């Protein structure tokens, strides 16, 4: 963004401020930083600083150009900032984590599964909780029942979404349920039949 400001479409700033600046703050001093700074410094607020920040929000709620999560680097090649002609792809990069699991190296039983889920699942449910739900649901069905895997996926979605209460969607532990889309695939690694 600093090196190629034309990509920002004169609508965004590469500088980061502790909060969104209001027009009434023009001329006042405020903390800021850019990609080269380890800490914060003060600067006098100018007209250009009123632009929307390149990255808006914090943590999992952070959005690139207020449009897309900053960690999303795959796909979306033609995505533009809402109501603009600004392409987002030049600001995103992808370094995926890849693991290879050779299915032919091991024998698998009907309870061995691979769970693929979107961040809507993983934002609120950890690996141990997922494994617990998998075992809980699978043991309530016969090993040859093919719907058992669908039921595991359904249960993971339901538990990650939570229950609608006065204060929004809540999990069993009263933490917020997932506010993101939740897609889950449960893929059996072993075929139906006897355990080995």
UniProtKB/TrEMBL annotation:
GO cellular component, as recorded: mitochondrion
Mind telling me which PANTHER family this protein's record contains?
PROTEIN PHOSPHATASE 1J, PROTEIN PHOSPHATASE 2C
Stated name of the protein: PPM1J phosphatase
Q: Which GO terms describe its molecular function?
A: [pyruvate dehydrogenase (acetyl-transferring)]-phosphatase activity
Q: SUPFAM superfamilies attached here?
A: PP2C-like
Q: Domain PPM-type phosphatase, which positions?
A: 1-189
To which species is this protein native?
Xiphorhynchus elegans (elegant woodcreeper)
Q: Which residue positions does the secretion signal occupy?
A: none
């Amino acid at each position: 963004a600093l090196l190629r400001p034309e990509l920002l479409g004169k609508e965004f700033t590469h500088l980061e401020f502790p909060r969104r600046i209001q027009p009434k703050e023009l001329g006042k001093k405020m903390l800021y930083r850019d990609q080269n700074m380890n800490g914060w410094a003060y600067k006098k607020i100018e007209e250009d600083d009123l632009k929307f920040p390149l990255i808006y929000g914090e943590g999992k709620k952070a959005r690139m150009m207020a449009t897309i999560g900053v960690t999303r680097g795959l796909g979306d090649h033609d995505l533009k900032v809402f109501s603009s002609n600004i392409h987002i792809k030049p600001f995103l990069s992808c370094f995926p984590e890849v693991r290879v699991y050779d299915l032919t190296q091991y024998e698998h039983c009907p309870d061995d599964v691979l769970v693929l889920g979107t961040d809507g699942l993983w934002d609120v449910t950890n690996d141990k909780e997922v494994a617990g739900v998998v075992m809980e649901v699978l043991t309530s069905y016969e090993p040859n029942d093919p719907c058992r895997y669908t039921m595991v996926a359904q249960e993971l979605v339901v538990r990650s979404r939570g229950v609608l209460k006065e204060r929004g969607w809540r999990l069993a532990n009263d933490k917020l349920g997932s506010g993101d889309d939740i897609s889950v695939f449960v893929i059996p690694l072993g075929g139906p039949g006897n355990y080995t």
